[in-house]
Amino acid sequence: MGSELSKRYDVDKDATGSGGHGYQWKSYQATRKKDGLEVSVFVFEKAALEKQLRNQKSLFEKVVMTARRDVATLANLAGIERRQLEKVRAAAAGPTSLRDAMASAALGVGTAVATASRKAPPGCLQLIETLESRQAIVFVGERVACSLGNALHKTWPGVASDKVPSHWRDGAFTTAEVARGAASLADALQALKGAGGMVQRAHLGVSPESIWLTKTGDWRLGGFGLALSIPAGQYGVASPYFANEGAIGGELTGEPRLEYTSPELTKNGDRVAAPACDVFSLGCVLWEVFTGSKALQGCDNLYGHRSACSRLQQLDPSQLPSLVRDAVSRSLAVHPQSRLDAAALRGCPLFHAPAVAALKELDALPSRDPSLAAAFLGNLTSMLDSGADVEYRECFTDRTLLIVVLPSLDACVRAQPKLCAPAAPALLACAARLDARAFRKSIQPILERFLVDAAGPQAVLAVVEHATLLLDRADASWAAKRVVDALARALRDDAGPRLRDAALRQLASSDVLDAVIAKASIAARNGVSSRVSTDLVPAVCRCVASKTCALATRVTAHKALAAALDRPPATPPEVLMRVVLPALRDSVRLVHGQPALAMCVLGCFDLVAKRLPEQSRILRDVLPSLIPLLDEKALNARQFDMVAGRVEAMLASAIQARRGELDSPSSVQPRMSAPDPFRATPSPAAAAPAPVPQ
Prior knowledge:
The chain is an alpha+beta fold. The chain is 50% helix and 9% strand.
């Protein structure tokens, strides 16, 4: 049988993260072919581990069994039955190497697949499918970026330096980001305690490498290879770990990491594994993330671990954020009876702070009811504002915008296009804060969805009203196409008045029009044709000559046209003669006692007159349409004088130009010149002489 992995997924060839016991699991980004779902493929290389532990066969077998138990527990949480996993393992065969598996998408002859039938508990890593070959154990899960151990410890085993996710390279976390992740892990520990009818378990492997970071920065609990099931009604079970007094610390031991292990698992005598052990381990992780140092230090062996546990009371809680001090301190209690349980830890005030709640809501946004999602989006913009409360400013850093806010908004409008309009203010608030590089990489693709018909006119309005910002940040080709698309769509005959007026105001602005022309000019050099003169100017002219537009709209349209006339690239000669002049002639007939409109028409004709190559052509192309304004009864004396002055000046200029032509010696000779772009080219039928009958 061919590879099921290659049939179902497109998998990147390079890993982006590593985690699990001893960092032996590597995560590869992948996409499911049937629906484009973004996932990660987790690979445990048995062959590479065997080479690493060449002379330690017992440890090799112990670590492999840990990896299998990891997958088995994740599969159980996802609803895969045990017999399905046994079928997968029985089918594992073939000499295929991991390199061949990832490069040629042939994961091994005879590979079987087990598929999840339900969602994993909150906070636990979601397994989607699992499969195994002779050389590797593989499962497909939700998309992750890397493990917390990768980012926190800045160690990336099995990951090429140029493949390290940029947002996690420096290991910096905001307080709200850590609180959101810790709340998710507290949810996972509650589920493992038997909530919702699940089998009670003690994880025993909670540590940075067993915590995976989703693409939006939330935390997911993995690394279940050391977990023990606890019978219903019991507090815990006897621990099989650290039975040898000579046990040493380290990452690859087949036992829990001593730096994150609770005191009761290493004490002399009976060692009981219970959910309280996991709360202690999570407390160790939180202490390290918040303070930058480990709560248990010097854990090279069991003696060192016991000594470190005896020094826990010397830790200074003032290093922790105030809202989490009590919860973390009580999680690190030496005696299990004094420790918080998972539910009490979940009630930590920091985990319910408004900024943390906002991050949680962003994660759930794509699946929210549209009305609830729209209400949240309406409040999100104020949270992103530079004048927001300190809590929100510290939470929504530029990094948070890139890894949390923008991906959530993208998923939201992708799932529900009608939410484009409510999401627009928040998206544009992100655009105002990020630089051009981040805008082009992360925001431009989202804005593409704002211009589809399903997004509605309000989404287009948001693009039009922020045209200045978008033109400043976007690359030339995108701006020349998408911003012009939005402006042209806003000027369509079926567009609403508000949308049309917004587009006309933008085009009347010198800054916007100059930016559009500049971007179009750059894009034209890259093979993108300019649509300013072919799409926007004709649309403005339709508004100029419209009989149905309101007076204010027509005045703004004339201002936009005047701005275009003042910029020759926007109104080349053929557009000037064939589009602009006919629209202005129609506009004169529609003045109808509106002096403001008359002044606008006068200004546009004045600009046209200045653009004519021969001033004598004013007599034919401008003055015949302009003279009727002298008879407009609604003009006051000052306005009449302005019209009369311009008419007299144009007439004088035209007469002087005409006399110059007559006085020129060349005026008596037929002139041979290049085609005149300001004169309409006659059609071939009109230009050809009629045939003479024989």
